[in-house]
Specification:
The chain has 5 helices and 7 strands, in the order ααααβββββββα. With 187 residues, the protein is α+β, with helices and mostly antiparallel strands.
Length: 187
Amino acid sequence: MKKRISLFFLILSAFLCGGFHGAVYVKADDKPKPLEEFYPEFGYTTAEEAIQEFESHFDQDVQLPLRIPPIPFTHYMGKFSDLEGDINDSLELMFINEDSPENHYKVEVRLIEAKLEVPERYIVKKVQLNNGDEAIYMQIHGAAYGLVFEKGNWQYILSVDRRVSDRVTDEVLVQIAESIDYVGDGG
C-alpha cells in the first residue's frame, strides 16, 4: 500500500510540475513535439474517450465537477489506467496550458474500495463540504495542492500546481468539488 501511495504522489508531482513535459530532451535544432503528439505516448486520449472507457470498465456512471479552476488552459485530455485488477484502475483528466506550465489542473477518480489514504504529514487541513462530507486539503511533496473527497462510489482527487495555489485556493477547490452536486442525482 505504501509503495502504491508513494508512486502515486511521485507521478502526480511530475505531472503537476510539468516534469514529464519538461523532460522531453531535444537537440538544439529540433523542435519539441506538440503536446498533441507528446501526451498520447503516455496513454492520454480525449477526455470523452477516457471517461467512456472508465465507465464501461466499472459498468457505472461517474459524475464529474462542472467547474474548473479560474485559470486559462490550452489542452484538456484524459487517461484511463486499467492495470491488473481494479485496485489501481483510475480515470485522470488533465487540463494544461502549453504557454504557462504552472496552469496545471488534474482530476483523478477511483473506486472507494481502492481509495488512496492520505498520510497525515500531507494534510494541510480538513474541510466540510456543503453536503456534510469531509474533504482533505493536502500538499503533495511541495509541488502541488489537492483536495481529496468521496462521492457516491468514487474517491476524487482535485489537484493544482503549487504555483497557482494563490489563485486556486482550497476554497476554489471546494467549490469545484461541490459542483458535482449539480450533475444529475449527484452520484
